[in-house]
Specification:
With about 260 residues, the protein is α/β, with parallel strands linked by helices. The protein has 14 helices and eight strands.
Length: about 260
Amino acid sequence: AVVVRTEGEVASRCPNALCPAQIKERLFHFGSKHALDIDGLGSKLVDALVDRGLVKTPADLYRLAKDQWAGLPRMAEKSAQNILDQLEKSKSIGLDRFLYALGIRHVGRHLAGVLARRFRTLAEFMTATTEVLEAVNEVGPEVARSIVEFLNEPGNRTLIADLIGPAVGIVPMEVEAPAAQSALAGKTLVLTGTLDALTRDEAASRIQTAGGRVSGSVSRKTDYVVAGRDPGSKADKAAQLGVPVLSEQDLLKLLEG
């Protein structure tokens, strides 16, 4: 298959959605930690599934019988059962993770969360127009166009229908809307250092659920820097710019308040 690189982009892409490389990339992304988190679905297993013609779309993963999994290289009955258990567990998933798992161009983890909180349900998201999307904070014309193109592609709509249909039964759960009185609603926070009570991902998720935004760099537009142990240069920059620095306990109080 021919692989092309779009001008202005680093990543190379295969223009044929059915080429083996594209199928493998999509499957690996779908099962990755921040998507549906299917433990054990590594690159070697994905290669074997595609090379043997067993799987062409993520929905096909859920249709394989235990003996088909067990028949793959370096797989035994116990490993096959573990994969089946992981697939069953993945059927209950947050809408934000589901949207990220679809692999929509330009929609990373953070933006998937923004979209999930705006549209709340998968059905509502699938009716989105470019005009509605461009009205969403952090969504520009190029991203809006990419999302609508994805949703208008018949193969993608078929995949989504298969994933949430009775044969597979994934349930993308509605993301809770942030409370209007949330102290973090509309605020931009930067996380730095090691947190104790939360992982960085958990802290980011809770901030986003509360209506806040997590950024990777400190600027004059930053509202708070949350500093854990060994915070490094971001805390120093916050002091230089006069940005309030919170402890993890301060953050937890704001999240709970």
